[in-house]
C-alpha cells in the first residue's frame, strides 16, 4: 500500500499570524498543489511538515510514524525543496552529496549523478555561484538522491525560465511515476494545470479548500451551467420587458 502523509490539527502562532488547525492527507504517487497568496502560510506549513520547524501544535504522521515522537525517522521519509534551505555554499554539489548523503538511510550517489546530469547541474562549481533556479534544481537532485516517499516544494518554479518550466512538468510526472508524493506550493495556479491531482487552498492561515482537482472542476462547470441558465432567464426577462409575450416561457 502506498504511504500516506497525514497532517493532523497542525497549528502555529506568530505574533501577527496564526496557522489555524490544518488537516489533510497526502498519498504517495500524487501531486497536491498548495495554493495561497503571499503570507497565506504556505512556507510556515511546509517547514512544519518537513520537520524543519518543530514549534507547532498537532502532529504530522508519515507511514504511521509521528513527527512529534520520532522526528529523525520522519525526516528520512520526507524532503524539502525550498529557497531557504542551505547547503555548504562554498562547496560543490558533489562535495555536498558526499558530506550530507551519509546522514540519509536511502541515499543513492548514483541517483544523485543521474539527476544532476538530467538537470544540467555543474557538478564541480561551488554552490554560491549558482543562480536561484540552479539552486532549486540542485535541491531537487538532492531530494531525488535522498529517495523519500514525499517531496515538499516551496514555490519551486519561481527561479525557472519558461523553457525549463515546461520541462519541469515532465520531471514532476516522472517523480510521481516512481511512487513519490509531491506537495508543491505556488501562487501561480497555471503551474498546476494538467498536473495536480489534489488542491489545498490556504487563506490567511486557514485551509479553505481540500479537494481533488476533478471535483473542483465539476463544481466550476456546474456554476458555469448555472450562470448560463441565469443568463437565459435574464434574456427572457429582457424580452418580456420589451413586450414579447411569445417568449414568456423563457
Ligand atoms: N519567523 C516569523 N516570525 C513572525 N512571523 C512570521 C515568521 N515567519 C513567517 N511569519 C508570518 O507568517 C505569515 C505567513 O508567512 P508564510 O511565509 O508562511 O506565507 P507564504 O504563504 O509562504 O507567503 P509567500 O507566498 O509570500 O512565500 C506572514 O504573515 C509572515 O509575516
UniProtKB/TrEMBL annotation:
Residues 3-229 form the ABC transporter domain. Coiled coil: none annotated. It comes from the Bacteria. CDD domains: ABC_DR_subfamily_A. The keyword Acyltransferase does not apply. One of its GO terms (molecular function) is ATP hydrolysis activity. The keyword Nucleotide-binding applies. Keywords: ATP-binding, Nucleotide-binding, Transport. It holds the Pfam family ABC_tran. This is ABC-2 type transport system ATP-binding protein.
Amino acid at each position: 500500500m502506498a504511504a500516506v502523509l497525514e497532517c493532523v490539527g497542525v497549528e502555529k502562532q506568530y505574533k501577527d499570524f496564526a496557522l489555524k488547525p490544518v488537516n489533510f492527507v497526502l498519498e504517495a504517487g500524487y501531486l497536491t498543489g498548495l495554493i495561497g497568496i503571499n503570507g497565506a502560510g504556505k512556507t510556515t506549513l511546509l517547514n512544519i511538515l518537513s520537520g524543519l520547524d518543530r514549534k507547532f501544535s498537532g502532529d504530522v504522521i508519515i507511514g504511521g510514524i509521528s513527527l512529534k515522537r520520532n522526528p529523525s525517522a520522519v525526516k528520512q521519509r520526507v524532503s524539502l525543496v525550498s529557497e531557504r534551505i542551505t547547503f555548504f555554499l562554498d562547496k560543490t554539489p558533489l562535495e555536498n552529496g558526499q558530506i550530507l548523503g551519509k546522514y540519509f538511510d536511502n541515499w543513492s550517489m548514483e541517483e544523485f549523478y543521474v539527476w544532476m546530469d538530467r538537470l544540467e547541474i555543474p557538478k564541480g562549481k561551488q554552490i554560491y555561484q549558482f543562480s536561484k533556479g540552479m539552486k532549486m534544481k540542485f535541491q531537487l537532485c538532492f531530494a531525488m538522491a535522498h529517495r523519500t516517499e514525499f517531496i515538499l516544494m516551496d514555490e519551486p518554479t519561481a527561479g525557472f525560465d519558461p523553457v525549463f518550466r515546461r520541462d519541469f512538468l515532465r520531471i514532476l510526472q516522472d517523480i510521481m511515476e516512481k511512487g513519490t508524493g509531491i506537495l508543491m506550493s505556488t501562487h501561480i495556479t497555471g503551474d498546476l494545470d494538467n498536473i495536480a491531482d489534489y488542491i489545498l487552498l490556504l487563506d490567511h492561515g486557514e485551509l479553505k479548500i481540500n479537494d481533488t482537482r476533478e471535483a473542483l472542476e465539476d463544481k466550476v462547470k456546474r456554476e458555469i451551467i448555472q450562470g448560463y441558465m441565469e443568463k437565459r432567464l435574464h434574456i427572457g426577462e429582457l424580452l418580456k420587458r420589451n413586450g414579447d409575450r411569445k417568449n414568456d416561457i423563457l
